[in-house]
Write a structure and sequence with these properties.
Length: 105
């Protein structure tokens, strides 16, 4: 499969949602897991896979640096997306989780 390329974060998220990644995940830094509100889940790193990763670097504003990850969990039957900052403005605890997850991918 040829890797996809997106111009914006919203373009990536919209396309991933069209492809079935409909759950909105958040990184819960204190617990070192991904969470979502609907359905109510907390997934440890061994309960999901990172299917795709897209990085967006701000041309003029480091605050625009974002990472979009397509996440799936066969065990829980969910597919979703998490969007987080990276680089200068990212939370250090979230950066550690993202870094750990990226090493597994």
């Amino acid at each position: 499969m040829v890797p996809l390329s997106y111009e914006t974060v919203s373009e990536a998220v919209n396309d991933l949602q069209k492809r079935g990644y409909t759950t909105n995940f958040s990184l819960w830094a204190e617990k070192g897991c991904l969470i979502c509100q609907n359905p109510s889940l907390a997934l440890s790193p061994d309960e999901f896979e990172i299917d795709e990763i897209y990085r967006f670097e701000g041309m003029t504003d480091p605050g625009d640096e974002m990472i979009v990850m397509a996440i799936s969990s066969e065990q829980h039957g969910v597919k979703g997306v998490t969007v987080n900052a990276f680089g200068a403005y990212s939370d250090s605890a979230i950066s550690k989780i993202t870094s750990r997850l990226n090493k597994e991918h």
